[in-house]
Amino acid sequence: VYQRLMEIESRLLPTGLHVIGDAPSAEEAVATLVNIASIDREEEGIRGIPDILAEARGTTIDEVYKQNDLGTLEGVQLNKDITDATRAAVRAFVGDVTDFRGKVKRSLKQDAFTVAMGKLFKKEPSYVKALNELGFEGANKDDLRGVFDYLSFCLTQVVKDQELEGFFEALEG
What we know:
- InterPro entries: CobN/Mg_chltase.
- Pfam families: CobN-Mg_chel.
- By secondary structure, the chain is mostly helical.
- It has helices at residues 2-15, 26-37, 49-56, 61-70, 73-95, 112-120, 126-133, 141-159, 163-172.
- The protein has one domain (2-44, 86-133, 141-172).
- It has nine helices and no strands.
- The longest helix is centred in the middle third of the chain and has 23 residues, at 73-95.
- The model has no long low-confidence stretch (mean pLDDT 82).
């Protein structure tokens, strides 16, 4: 937990404080959502992205962390690959809801035409494409959908007019 808090602090301080009432930038959203996406929420049946990606490589995230801490080349590299892939997937997800100013859109809902075209052409979500490009084709798509649905909920709460209340609700799970 301490490591995660320090990571959040190190990411948020350089970007400055967010202005309440102003939609977060894509970079702010990615930094926040990567941290949210990295935590398992067992009580809600939501696995963290690193856990899903470790499973796709035939191991557990606890084992990856253990090998990383021991300094094994494979463990350090896999931990880096999982961290990079998590960021890339979240960045792709946020990119889908970012406007021309680099701010997260107030409405994350897709219009009916876009949804219909996606289904018709069996378009994969951008986060799945990002993970596939980084060698995580075997990641459980149902588990990924669950975590990204949760991230969508969290992002919606953050961009609401009553942002602060929504952010605290999202953090509480």
